[in-house]
Amino acid sequence: MPVLLALLWLCHLATASLTISIPPSTHLPNPHVLPATTRATLTTLPAAGAGDRDPTHILTTSLTRGSTLVFRDIPAGHPESYLLDIRAGEYVFAPYRVDIAADGSVLGVWETFRGNPWDNRGAEKYVVDVAGKKAADVVVEAKVLGRKGFYEERAKFSPLSLVKNPMILMAIVALAMTFGMPKLMENMDPEMRAEFEQQSRASPLTGATTNAMTGGGFDLAGWMAGTAPSPMASAEGAREGATGREAAGSARKRG
């Protein structure tokens, strides 16, 4: 008789349940698309010396049609602290810490963080009201962290990607200069065109470029040794000579 009463007392204690609901979210707009293989586990350290033979240190439940995970008749007897894990095929859920009292009721549910101390609790999901009556059925909402990516999306071709390429932009600018400059020169005023050509011929960069393209008699070894003038000095001398000839021509015209 005492043994029967003890069993009835234990069955009366093990009446608390924990329900995890999966609400719609940004990563999971429709929770009903979750596969039937979605499972939740409550894991705690086994009793001393029991090892894997203790069946109460791992509790498992499956997904219901209402997109909920229900742990019924949580074992009672002594306080326990469980790690709640939800495993789905393509989605990642946040782990929770669940504290159970000696009578099997849920004391509190908090977010937890892997790789951190167990006492480092995150956001609070449920805490028992000490002044009020303990709830027999506790309902908390699961948090979806993201969706697993098993495949890398292939890059799609876009004409705008060609415009973003620096080499393509340089080629477009070069073509515009090649075909656009002659048109600009044709539409330019004759006096402005003559002035532009004169400045182009007298430019030191133009002279240096011409000498580099034609050879120009530039002695690189002599210039490095300091015995030959630099190409810029040669260009300056050529420009001064051209300026002197123009001045002499103007003087002859005045005379």
UniProtKB/TrEMBL annotation:
Per UniProt, the ranges with Low complexity bias are 244-255
Using the record for this protein, list the coiled-coil segments as residue ranges, or answer none: none
Q: Which residues form the ER membrane protein complex subunit 7 beta-sandwich domain?
A: 30-170
Q: Where in the cell is it found?
A: Membrane
Name the keywords, alphabetized: Membrane, Signal, Transmembrane, Transmembrane helix
Please list which residues make up the signal peptide: 1-16
Membrane protein topology class: Single-pass membrane protein
Chief subcellular location: membrane
Cellular component, GO, one term: EMC complex
Annotated region (Disordered) at 228-255
Q: What is this protein called?
A: ER membrane protein complex subunit 7 beta-sandwich domain-containing protein
The organism's taxonomic lineage, starting at the top: Eukaryota, Fungi, Dikarya, Ascomycota, Pezizomycotina
